[in-house]
Amino acid sequence: MSGLLLENKNAVVYGGGGAIGGAIARVFVREGAHVFVAGRTRARLDAVADDIAATGGTVETAQVDVLDEAAVEKHADDVAAAAGGIDVAVNAVSVMHDQGTMLADLSLEEFMRPIDGFLRTLFITSKAVARHMGGERPGVILTLSEPGSKLAVGGILGHAVSAAGKEAFSRVLAAELAPRNVRVIGIRPHAVVDGPAAGSYTGELFERIAAGAGQSVQELLENGMAQGTLLKRLPTLSEIAETAAFLASDRAGSMTGTIANLSGGALVD
C-alpha cells in the first residue's frame, strides 16, 4: 500500500478558493492527488495555487460559476479528458445566507436562499462528475453539511433545512451510484474558528449575531459555539482536510452513504 493516501488520483475541489476547499486542496496535493480547483473568484483560487506552489506542489485552477450547469459540465468534461477521468470530487461551495432571524421576520427569499443555493450546486457538480467516475477505478464524491441539520435551535430555519437536504442528497446518491463503484460520503464539521475561516465566510455569516452579543466573531465561536460541544472546541481546517483525504482514499473503501461527524460532539449520533 502506498504511503500517500491519494497517489495517482484525479480530484476536483469545487469552492477550492474558500477556507475549507483550499485546505482540502492542499492536503490532497500533499497526498499525491492531481488536483483541480474550481470557484468563482480568481484571486482566491490563485492564492491557494500560490500556497501549494510554495510547498513544491502544483494545482490547476479554473474560474467556474458552480450555478452555471453548462459551465460546470464543460469543466468536468475538460478535466476528465485531460486527466483520464475523475476519481474524487469535493463540493466545498459556500452560499451566504441568514442566521439569527426568527420565522416572523424571515422572508421567503432568505429562507430559500441556502436551500436553493446549496442544493443546486450540489446537484450540478455531482451530476457533472459522476459520469466520469466509477467502473474499474473507484470514485468518491464528498459533500459538506453542518450540525444545523439536527440541531433544534431557533433562527436557523433555512440553514437547517439546507443542511438536512445536503445529507439526504448524499445518502440517496450513494445508493444510486454504489452499483457503479462510486462512494458518496458527507462531512459534517461545526463552524471553523482557525485560519482564514473566521475572517471570510464564517466571519460574514456570524458578524451580525456577534455584534448583537457585543462580541467579535472569534469570541462568539470560541466562547459560545465551542462550549456547546463535548470537546469544548471547534474543528480545525486541518482536521477537516485530513478527514476528507482519508475518506477519499481507498483506505475508506467500505464507507458510503454515511455522514462523518466532525462537530466535536455538538451532535453525538
TrEMBL record:
Keywords from the UniProt entry: Oxidoreductase
GO molecular function: oxidoreductase activity
Keyword hit for Oxidoreductase: yes
InterPro entries on file: NAD(P)-bd_dom_sf (IPR036291), SDR_fam (IPR002347)
Keyword Oxidoreductase: yes
One Pfam family per UniProt: adh_short_C2
Family assignment from sequence similarity: Belongs to the short-chain dehydrogenases/reductases (SDR) family.
Alphabetical list of PANTHER family matching this protein: 5-KETO-D-GLUCONATE 5-REDUCTASE (PTHR43669), SHORT-CHAIN TYPE DEHYDROGENASE_REDUCTASE-RELATED (PTHR43669:SF8)
Protein name per its UniProtKB record: NAD(P)-dependent dehydrogenase (Short-subunit alcohol dehydrogenase family)
Record organism: Jiangella mangrovi
